[in-house]
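Support request, please re-run this one:
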Amino acid sequence: MSTHPRVMTHVSSLDSTSGEWEGSAPATGLRAGEVASLPGCTASAPLRLDVMGGLGEYTGGLVLNLPLSPHIEVSARWRPEPSVAVTASRALPTPARHALVSPFEHLRAGGREWLALDRAITPESGDLESACTLVLGAWLEGVRRGLLPEPLHGMRLEVEGLPPPRADVGLASALCAATLVACARLAGADLDPAGAIHVCADVESVLTGLACGIGDAVSALTGERGALTQARCGSGQIGPNLHLPEGSLVVAVLCGGRDPQRTHTHRTVRAATQMGRLLIERILAHENDTRVGMGGLLSRLTMTDFVERFRDRLPTKISGGEFLERFGDPGDPHAPVDPREVYKVRSRTEHHIYENMRASQFAERLSHYARNKERQRLIDAGELMYASHWSYGQRCGMICVAADRLVTLLRRRGHDAGIFGAKTAGRGCGGLVAALIEDTPTARGALEDACREFAEQHKFIPECIYASADGALRSPGRTI
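Re-run finished. Output below.
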């Protein structure tokens, strides 16, 4: 239980079908000045590095994330007016600030329609308006689902020091997680971790138009310093945090060069993967095979089953129009099949089968090294990262030149220099690389030497993030 003052003592009933408030909050007897002087509190949520399995969140695969020390802090305070005021600001590269205010009556009456924007939200761009909308959305959905009490007073939510635009580091989930925890602390309420995880994932999906798994939210809320979070997004299974073995380190390297067409690429790859999933389900149904229980998730297929029974029966390429005519719609609203697009079904599907296996083996290698200190296990884990990097590029077409070049430079240093493995991160398409290194001055020096060589070639100085951090539910926050 939070030690912050319990100001809210009433939670009004929620309509389970419409999600709208019934009735209104009772008066508290406090004057406006007294409300404004009540203490507020903060919560911090880490950004994240997807280390292995990132694309597998929509096929039920294992996703391993590292919570990064750069964090998002949200402060929550009471305000006397019956509304929610949200502000977001940044100091770099140019000072900027955005604010929005939503009266309670509009939120009560508007259903989900108020979430619609004139343009798509792109939270990873660091857009301040998007940040404000995500914060407001997380608070509102938390109240609707009963995770947060209905407010007795107005709310003031602030995001200060929003980081400048960078690669896909889970900014949206961090904003939602910090908001939910800050508001729960302000109310003196316990926050259900499982419910909060799903609110973060759902709000991000609604506001961005991109289906998001629970992996980022797990990291933002329950991540642990020096450990990887484990989530199987399709089934909702959350494993125990996997502590990095002593003597090893996972580093995030921001290297620039993101693909401007990454959103289109992601959707195309996803659509092709769902086409492969549909064809495999059709094959199983045609053969009346009930031994393979996919449950709509490719990750439940073994590599042996895929290679021996399905791989060569999937088309290498097929137009969206031909696929729809012959097989119908895979039914994924987040990745509709475009009749004009040509989809590489076999290779995109294959990536998910292999990546799920690699993620599981990567976790096993780290655990094995933690038990017996055989250095070869870290080398093996690094090789799995290189294989993942190759698959992102060759099977999915999701590697940019900059990320590929940096991985090549790191691989040249080799495990003798303490560089065990590296791969594109941030779900591909550039901007971010994950590296597994030895936690020694020699290995750090080799990593930084590779970054200097990269900077000479690409006129971009990479930023290395060595430290990790606790999730919002583990971080203490501050009273303000």
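Residues 1-27, 110-125 have pLDDT under 50 and may be disordered. The chain is about 40% helix and 20% strand.
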